[in-house]
Design brief:
Layout (H helix, E strand, L loop, with lengths): L6 H32 L24 E5 L9 E10 L2 E9 L2 E8 L2 E10 L8 H11 L7 E6 L3 E2 L10 E11 L2 E14 L2 E11 L14 E15 L1
Antiparallel strand pairs: 1-4, 1-11, 2-3, 2-11, 4-5, 5-6, 5-7, 6-8, 8-9, 9-10, 10-11
Length: about 240
């Protein structure tokens, strides 16, 4: 007849099991950032105006300008930048799209009207997994495919030089994301380059103001504060 395990044997077995569970959990926690890195890095950010590519203006600033999507260093682009909060790590990630359209009107050196629309369904980063999460779980693009910025106050652009220098102009307008609208005021870079008008800037936002909730990710959450990045290239 087999002998029953004594108390010391049972205690040793329990300690071994507990130790094994602890090791497995520790390894999984340590691997989470590595696994997430496999799904993508810092993303693709819409940068500001490349001043080295700007040349002196060849047309008047007044008129109706239309966003174009022609290729080049300062092509039209828009997107987001937020921090991902991971176990033991915080990193910045971005997504962007060239799906930008719209028009602005300038009369007597004053911006009198303007509306820019961004196709949120085409935002991409450096990871298909992240892109699907951004579209389907964060911005809900099936339901809210577009975001818009509409100028709500006139802005003086008469000081934007014709020599290709980049000026700073304060713009006020209504930013709409997921059908939630908030008025924002930000300083944008503006440049006249050949027959083009360039505008770029970072709009600081709190995602909760636009009903953007953190999806139920296993290992990552998204910081509340972030940026909407935009660069538009317009012609007449």
């Amino acid at each position: 007849m087999a002998a029953k395990p004594n108390a010391r044997s049972r205690k040793t077995t329990a300690l071994v099991v507990a130790g094994s569970i602890f090791i497995v959990v520790a390894v999984l926690v340590a691997m989470v950032p590595l696994m997430l890195n496999l799904f993508g890095g810092g993303g693709v950010k819409t940068e500001g105006i490349d001043a080295q590519s700007v040349k002196p203006a060849s047309t008047d600033i007044d008129g109706e300008w239309t966003v174009t999507n022609r290729p080049g260093t300062n092509h039209s682009s828009a997107g987001f930048t937020f921090d991902e909060v991971l176990p033991g790590e915080r990193r910045t990630t971005s997504g962007s799209t060239k799906g930008v359209s719209g028009t602005v009107t300038i009369e007597g050196g004053t911006l009198t009207a303007g509306e820019i629309e961004v196709d949120m369904t085409t935002i991409t980063s450096d990871s298909d997994v992240r892109d699907n999460n951004v579209r389907r779980k964060i911005f809900l693009t099936d339901q809210y495919p577009n975001a818009t910025f509409q100028v709500s106050e006139p802005a003086d652009l008469s000081g934007v030089p014709a020599d290709g220098s980049v000026a700073q102009v304060e713009l006020t307008g209504d930013l709409t994301i997921m059908d939630e609208t908030n008025e924002i005021t930000e300083t944008f870079d503006v440049a006249r380059s050949g027959d083009r008008l360039l505008v770029a800037g970072d709009i600081h936002v709190n995602r909760l103001d636009y009903g953007v909730e953190t999806p139920d990710f296993v290992a990552a959450t998204i910081a509340e504060e972030g940026e909407i990045n935009i660069r538009i290239n317009m012609g007449k």
